[in-house]
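Researcher: Re-running this chain for the archive, since the previous output was lost when a drive failed. Same request as before.
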Amino acid sequence: MNILRVCVLPLSRNKLLREFFLCSFFIEKRTIKDMELQKIRGKKTIGFIVLIVVIIVVILCIFWPHPISKGEKYIREQAGKSVDDMTQVLAEKRAQEIQIANANGQMNIYDLLDSYAILGDSRAVMFQTELDPNRVMAEIGVKINNIDHYLSALQTMQPRFIYVMYGLNDIASNLNGTEGGYGQIVTEEGKKIMDVCPNSKLFLISILPVQSDQAMNDQVNIYNEALRQAAQANGWTYIDCTDLVADDYYEGDGEHFKASFYPLLAERMYEAQESTV
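Model: Regenerated structure tokens:
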């Protein structure tokens, strides 16, 4: 009996040890596998969280209101404008730069006028002191219906820009009282110019007011309206210069202007031609 117990105990202990080690192996193996699975799940979880964060950031960047820089705002504004609007903006910007440079003595506005001709009366004669006299076809006492005298010179010259500057003598001669009115006369004379210079651009400069004569200035307004309508009907450009006039610019006769006025007039003429280029 004792011998049997001695023999049985070693066998039972061996079996127990074997089962214990087997059990430990499987437990350890499962633990390692679970750890690997947890590690994989952890990586997937981290990747998923990162993806969610990225999506949220992208959505916030697109839809969250944010300050717009001046440059970005300017670009957006310009992108929505038509070609004509952009041309006008550039012309205005260029005109401002010219005005500042001219006021600071950094440039001479007359130097910017090129390939031009000026037709006019005594008010236009002053341009001959600063510009090429051959291009300033102006005389004292003439009217707009005296343009025939300059057609040959214009045809030879073929200037890109032609400025017409008549007025007070037209009013004094009551050209608006003729058949068809002043507008018809302006149209006929303008077409004569365009017949000999078909590639030129024609500008009609407004008649400038006088000092201390309201009756005359009332007529100036009537004639200017006829000029404006004629320009509009024929595809020409009407240049309103009334706002440039101030008492300090008048000569003693109240009709003609001092030399200091003409750079302002030349600047307005240049602005007009640039807006049509």
